[in-house]
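dumping this here before i forget
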Amino acid sequence: MAQHGEGVIAPEDDAVHGGTTTGTAVEVAHENAGSPGTAVVPTDGVQNPGFPPHYPRRTDVDPKKDARAERQVSILFYLSIVGSIFAVAAYIAFPILPGDPGSIRTNNLLLGLGITLGLLGIGIGAVHWAKQLMRGDESVELRHPTRGKEETRERAVEIFKLGNEESGIGRRSVIRNSLIGALVLTPIPAVALFRGLAPASDPIKPLQHTMWAKGTRLTRDPTGAPIKASDVTLGSAFHVIPEGLNDKTDLLEEKAKAAVLLMRLRPEDLHVSAGRENWNYDGIVAYSKICTHVGCPVALYEQQTHHLLCPCHQSQFDITHEAKVIFGPARRPLPQLPITVDSEGYLVARSDFHEPVGPDFWEREL
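structure:
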């Protein structure tokens, strides 16, 4: 007898073609073959194979091999300690000398070997510990997306305790102590390296003082020609550097601190505070050219308003009120350079600036 159904071939069916048997295969399809919303569960899906069989390791069955593996792990951690100490010692014993390429190669080689030994000792030791001494069978734990119940949380604490027991860190004191020592000493070479990036001398002093000193002539930037008081006309502005700056080997560094802008106003327009009465000469004033915000050059002078403008972040300083900040992100006025004239009529400094120039730094208290 032929079977009917969707997609079923009926080779012989007397009901087809008026009951006559033709011997011809025909395809018969039922109208009600099934709901399109019915889920189909495949019967040939991949089955969960489960965990592979657990085979005990040599360290699981032989106490001697267990003790041997523990010693090996601790030795690797101690090698990490030795590498970290060696890196610091090499960094100090073989410093980089200016103009000596050989010292650079030696320092880099020994320092790299020490750091490599320090890191590899911890890494290989941790892997060897996990493979030989920690619990080796596999397990599965369901992950809960929300905060679990109190029973679940208590179970988590138990799992942590179980992890401590399985890793053996609580009872294997040799491994624990050597690991702690390795982890404590591993960052030490990095600390030594970062310390080496700092200046060899006190970094504060160079920021507090410039080339200006008592009797230093004010000269034009960049020619270095000295400036007489008679050269500075009302409303004019001069870009100024200290005399002798062009002869310095560190010209740019010194200029970044000592650059000055020189202007002449009417003496009655100046509002001079107590103690600064002799810091200007006949209306001629000198202020640091370095903005107190982030150190940009304050080089735009408005003759009518007597304002100095920083082109970087638009801080404005009022020269008539001792370069007080009137707009912008700058936090303090431009430092004023006390000036006078010498016996030949040239403008000279009375002293260095009385405060650090440029942007605020970490040792300054406002």
